[in-house]
Amino acid sequence: MSDTGAPARRPYRVGYAPGAYDLFHIGHLNILRHARSQCDYLVAGVVSDEMAEFAKGRRPMIPLVERLEIVRSVKYVDAAFVETVPDKVETWKQVRFDVIFKGDDWRGTPKGDKLEKDFAAHGVDVVYFPYTVHTSSTQLRRALDALAEPAAAPGQVTGERR
């Protein structure tokens, strides 16, 4: 609250937090929580199955309609938007956010540098939040894949043919 009793103004009006949000975990929640603390209205961009496959080389384990419902239900999210194009500026033209939030694993990378350059031309800030290193969808996927592999019989090498 401000001294006048009105809610304190956040640094940004509309924020945008894109992601695949596959295998939703604490890192996703942290990004959304931190993002909402910086803006009056938070839109979470949920990458379509096709876009995730294009960007990461594999489809999400959780279908888009379910990922969208999960993200939409998080209390920090005011709206969820399905991202269907790889160009974030094209998404901005539809959503019109003031700031885009990304994990700091993007900072100083070619992708992050391009994002900053592209959005500087439109007056949109790029804000990075700490990446949750101990949990990621990639790690969870690897663990699930390992559990799905058939167990080798004693003395047998997995994948060996008889």
Polypeptide structure, described:
- The protein is α/β, with parallel strands linked by helices and 162 residues long.
- The protein is 37% helix and 20% strand.
- The chain is built from six helices and five strands.
- A five-stranded parallel beta sheet has the order 3-2-1-4-5.
- Strand 1, helix 1 and strand 2 form a beta-alpha-beta unit.
What is this structure's SSE topology?
Blueprint: E1 12-19, H1 26-37, E2 39-47, H2 49-56, H3 64-72, E3 79-83, H4 88-95, E4 99-103, H5 110-120, E5 125-129, H6 137-148
Parallel strand pairs: 1-2, 1-4, 2-3, 4-5
Strand count, sense and barrel status of the largest sheet are: 5 strands, parallel
* Overall average residue pLDDT: 85
Count every beta strand, where a strand is a DSSP E run of 2 or more residues: 5
Radius of gyration: 19 Å
Brief synopsis:
It contains six helices and five strands, in the order E-H-E-H-H-E-H-E-H-E-H.
Key features of this structure:
single chain; 6 helices; 162 residues; alpha/beta; 5-stranded parallel sheet
